[in-house]
């Protein structure tokens, strides 16, 4: 594949918050290309700039220097986002939360119901369809968030510390669901994490330190992040 096939390309992309002496550089000149089918873990301690980099990839933030282009994506609907924080709408049940992106896109109700049912089944949450977010656990809520991404059928899935608030076993199930969704849809998957065990589940790993995306994997650096969560 060539650069023309890339979903997202960061070229010397930097992100700075604020101005003058109080300015904070969250990302220093990152170079990164995400290709179709990629499975990438961006590893680093809290505050290393992982989330800021993910926001640049998603278009939630614009680079203060350098560029971020998305040659392989038609628009925001091609990007599915999974965050560490709770993202379900409290007033909607699990099925309605999963259906939300489809409803906003104007999908026919019958098609939406089938898609939602299939998505919840794939992540092992079919029995939760009529429950409210307050009636399910944090791990279940994350699996529902993954199902919502699946229903959207994106070309790129960006997951920001999706297991960060979960115990090891629950986090493993959420990661299983993310990988299953990426395999099912053929989407590229980028996961930020401070957990070496999570990073080890993805074939390509990049370390982030002090806002700098290192050129290649360094297993010692990845191991060091275990003490920096």
Automatic annotation (TrEMBL):
Where in this chain does the record put each ABC transporter domain? Answer: 8-229
Where is it found, in Gene Ontology cellular component terms?
A: plasma membrane
Q: Print the keywords alphabetically.
A: ATP-binding, Nucleotide-binding
Q: Which SMART domains match?
A: AAA
Q: Does the keyword Metal-binding apply?
A: no
InterPro entries for this protein: AAA+_ATPase, ABC_transporter-like_ATP-bd, ABC_transporter-like_CS, ABC_transpr_LolD-like, P-loop_NTPase
Pfam families xref list: ABC_tran (PF00005)
This entry's Gene Ontology molecular function terms read: ATP binding; ATP hydrolysis activity; transmembrane transporter activity
Q: What is this protein called?
A: ATP-binding cassette domain-containing protein
């Amino acid at each position: 594949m060539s650069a023309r096939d890339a979903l997202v390309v960061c070229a010397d992309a930097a992100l700075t918050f604020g101005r003058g002496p109080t300015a904070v550089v969250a990302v220093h000149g990152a170079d990164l290309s995400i290709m179709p089918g990629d499975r990438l873990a961006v590893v680093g301690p809290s505050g290393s700039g992982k989330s800021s980099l993910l926001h640049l990839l998603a278009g939630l933030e614009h680079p203060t220097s350098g560029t971020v282009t998305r040659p392989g994506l038609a628009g925001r609907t091609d990007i599915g986002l999974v965050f560490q924080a709770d993202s379900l709408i409290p007033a909607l049940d699990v099925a309605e939360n999963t259906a939300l992106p489809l409803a906003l896109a104007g999908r026919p109700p019958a098609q939406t119901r089938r898609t939602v049912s299939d998505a919840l089944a794939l992540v092992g949450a079919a029995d939760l369809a009529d429950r409210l977010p307050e009636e399910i656990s944090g791990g279940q809520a994350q699996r529902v968030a993954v199902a919502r991404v699946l229903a959207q059928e994106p070309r790129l899935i960006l997951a920001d510390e999706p297991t960060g608030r979960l115990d090891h076993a629950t986090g493993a199930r959420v990661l299983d669901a993310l990988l299953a969704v990426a395999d099912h849809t053929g989407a590229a998957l980028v996961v930020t994490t401070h957990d070496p065990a999570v990073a080890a589940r993805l074939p390509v790993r990049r370390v982030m330190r002090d806002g700098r995306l290192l050129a290649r994997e360094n297993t010692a650096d990845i191991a060091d992040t275990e003490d920096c969560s």
